[in-house]
Specification:
Immunoglobulin-like, elongated
């Protein structure tokens, strides 16, 4: 690993050059360069790809997959993330611009092939990285290999590849360095296009308002009718039918996939042309072409000069594989947080337990966390199935439904006239009694309780309150006059058998006006 220099030199070739160093000297530069990249059938240059020839190990040591960037790790992940930083989905101002990820390239390409790569042997002086044009017909970004590059997981030990590439892509988009007025203050408040770098460059990863404003001046603000993809379903295999849902799709659109191609011009590989939209411009069905690969899918409307947000997609990947779950049992009422371990889980994966849909709380390539659905029978075992476009996997008899734990809770509006729902859980089909009373001590059924009468609410066993087949029962109490700002106690008891009972404890409830 080479030690990075204290002063780094940045040059965006053909137009502007300036110091890219640690904070200290602020220099004013121009605010634009080159021409904006267009969207048209003959000149489509919003794609970005990488030739991953970086030799520093730290440039490719990030091996943690991210669902939003499928198939990308290390330097590839850093470059894709840097492209998304300029996209319309970022929060720093609305922008009518989105890059199209085209994955890896077999070489460094020419000056208009939109490829990011390392320059073997490095650069003279303290040069850090540079962008080559002509910008109106593409670009090429080179990283100098005499600099120690880092893809940035944890605490990087080199210069942040992602942050520097966000800056370089700004030049590729037609932006020059920001004026000095936008380059003071903390690293987090400065424009990304400042000619100086803060620390290792991580703060350059997200663009600032000044960067977004200047991008809008070239590409316009996010239009109200820009196509937006909200979800995908159907088949995720080449030759299969992919269903794309969203908003503001034109009546006839092109669908563009990551295809690992060279420069996009003419008939573009990975594009399916002239697909009709249905359901009022909210759905497009398309056969995935053989050239498509894991990456992103986009809706392209060249006649309107519009391109949708990128949407991540896994294509022709391995089916999911479950290795185990934890815990392996939980109450019949559901709601248990269960971690499913395995491999090849994708962002579109869904889970069922015992045939019932489970709520997915979080998801990564090796782990899915769900909330168990309600069961049907205490003691029954449920299969757990993970399903996605590439297939499914089932772990048979993986989770057992147990009796609910015995407890008493309340929820609702503890006010005069307000309703409070009191819930008792426990074993199935047992009688229950619930009372609300003033704090004190009384004895019922041979059990001391923390309430005294008169009870504003009481349900006795003969009243038919029963935990039922799901081991739970709810009943409603309404706040009564005369208890404002007072605390009442909610108590309960379950009848376990003839002459045997279990106290559910005492829950305080303060009544508000």
């Amino acid at each position: 690993m080479r030690a990075r220099t204290k002063t780094l030199f940045f040059c965006s070739i053909l137009v502007l050059c300036g110091t890219f160093s640690l904070p200290g000297v602020l220099t004013a530069f121009g605010t634009s360069r080159g021409s904006a990249l267009s969207v048209s059938s003959g000149n489509y240059q919003r794609d970005v790809r990488i030739h991953n020839n970086f030799v520093d190990p730290q440039a490719n040591n990030n091996n943690v997959p991210q669902d939003d960037y499928p198939g990308a790790l290390g330097a590839e992940l850093a470059v894709w993330r840097s492209a998304v930083a300029w996209g319309s989905s970022t929060s720093t101002a609305s922008k009518n611009f989105d890059f199209d990820w085209q994955g890896t390239a077999s070489g460094v390409g020419g000056r208009n092939d939109n490829i990011v790569s390392a320059l073997p042997g490095g650069c003279s002086g303290n040069t850090l990285a540079f962008t080559e044009g002509p910008i109106s017909n593409g670009w090429r970004i080179r990283f100098c290999e005499n600099i120690g590059w880092d893809d940035g997981p944890g605490n990087p030990v080199g210069v942040d590849l992602e942050g520097v590439n966000v800056h370089e892509l700004g030049h590729a988009l037609g932006l020059g360095h920001s004026d000095a007025a936008f380059c003071g203050g903390s690293c987090f408040s400065r424009a990304t296009m400042c000619a100086i770098i803060c620390g290792d460059g991580q703060t350059e990863r997200s663009i600032a308002e000044n960067d977004a404003d200047r991008l809008q001046s070239l590409y316009g603000a996010f239009p109200g009718n820009k196509p937006v993809i909200t979800g995908i379903s159907g088949s995720f295999e080449t030759g299969g039918t992919l269903i794309i849902d969203g908003t503001d799709f034109a009546s006839n659109v092109h669908v563009k996939f990551t295809a690992g191609t060279g420069q996009n011009s003419g008939t573009i590989p990975g594009v399916v042309y002239n697909r009709p939209s249905t359901n009022g411009g909210t759905r497009v069905q398309v056969t995935i072409p053989n050239t498509a690969s894991t990456g992103n899918v986009m809706i392209w409307q060249p006649n309107q000069n519009r391109l949708s947000n990128y949407f991540p997609i896994y294509i022709d990947e391995n089916p999911p594989s479950i290795s185990g779950i934890n815990p392996t049992a939980g109450p019949i009422q559901g709601g248990t947080e269960v971690t499913i371990s395995g491999s090849d889980f994708f962002l579109n994966a869904s889970v069922t337990m015992g045939g019932e849909s489970a709520t997915v709380l979080s998801r990564s390539s090796g782990e899915i966390v769900i909330e168990s659905p309600q069961g049907s029978t205490v003691g029954a075992f449920a299969d757990v199935t993970v399903s996605q476009g590439t297939g499914s996997d089932t772990l048979s008899n993986a989770f057992m439904y147990e009796e609910n734990p015995v407890f008493l809770t309340w929820d609702g509006n503890p006010r005069v006239g307000g309703n409070v729902t009191i819930k008792v859980t426990g074993p199935q089909n047992l009688d229950v009694a619930v009372a609300v009373g003033q704090p004190g001590l009384t004895e019922r059924l041979g059990i001391p309780f923390c309430v005294v009468g008169p009870f504003p609410f009481v349900k006795k066993f003969p009243a038919g309150l029963n935990t039922g087949s799901l081991g739970a029962v709810e009943t409603v109490w309404q706040g009564v006059q005369g208890t404002v700002f007072e605390t009442v106690n909610v108590v309960g008891v379950i009848k376990l058998g003839p002459g045997t009972f279990q106290d559910l404890g005492c829950v305080p409830l303060t009544i508000l006006p």
